[in-house]
Amino acid sequence: MSEMKASDLVALQYLMTEDIYLISEKEPATSSAESQDSSPAFDYLGENNKFMLLLIQEDSHPNLRSNELEALSSILGAKRMSIKDVAIVNQRKYNSSSWKEFKAYFACSSIVLFGIDPQQIKLRPLPKNAITDFEGMQVLFTYSFAEMLNSVDKKREFWNQMKKL
């Protein structure tokens, strides 16, 4: 087979009937990988539809125990919300993460700390069971679920604040 050479544009128009595209090579993906490392991806329960972050600290389970999840569902139901409306994160997996990382990832307008000292996520000391406005979000530092399930008074204190969020 002989090599065909054509330099006339009209002839090329009839010979080349397919579209030709110029695709530039992709840049190395190092810059995007670095930006992904700077903000961690969090494993969480829920869909965060109402931008409310619930931080728990559970050693033996990846998330809440079934009785705690049931209690939380009841609490959220009383607020006309569901698990889909919140993001539940076990902070034990992310000990070095700060409130800024959580806020950036979840775009949360409120954070509830269940048994987690605010200083663990690099917040200033906060009063227990009092909603505090901080950096454009509301923060509620309260008892762990285990503490609340064993005390009616602690549940009542928590609920009195939670219904305001």
Key words describing this protein structure:
165 residues, alpha/beta, Uracil-DNA Glycosylase, subunit E, 5-stranded mixed β-sheet, 5 strands, 15% strand
How would you characterize the overall build of this protein?
The chain is of the alpha/beta class and 165 residues long. The chain folds into two domains: 9-38, no CATH class; 52-162, Uracil-DNA Glycosylase, subunit E, CATH 3.40.470.10. It has six helices and five strands. The protein has a five-stranded mixed sheet, with helices on one face. A hairpin with a 2-residue loop joins β4 (131-134) and β5. The longest helix is centred in the middle third of the chain and has 13 residues, at 66-78. The chain is elongated, with a radius of gyration of 27 Å.
Question: How is this structure best summarized?
Answer:
It contains 6 helices and 5 strands, in the order ααβαβαβββαα. With 165 residues, it is α/β, with parallel strands linked by helices.
Write down how many β-strands occur, each being a DSSP E stretch of 2 or more residues.
5
Estimate nothing, just give the exact number of structural domains. 2
Report the CATH superfamily of the largest domain. Uracil-DNA glycosylase-like domain
Label the structural class: alpha/beta
Taken from the alpha-carbon principal axes, the silhouette is elongated
Which class of the largest domain in CATH terms? Alpha Beta
The second-level CATH architecture of the largest domain is 3-Layer(aba) Sandwich
| Rg over alpha carbons | 27 Å
Percent strand: 15-25%
Biggest beta sheet attributes: 5 strands, mixed
Instruction: Determine the fraction of residues in helical runs and give it as a percent range.
Output: 25-40%
Strands across the major sheet, in which order?
A: 2-1-3-5-4
CATH fold title of the largest domain = Uracil-DNA Glycosylase, subunit E
Please give the alpha-carbon distance between the first and last residues.
79 Å
Secondary structure tally, helices = 6
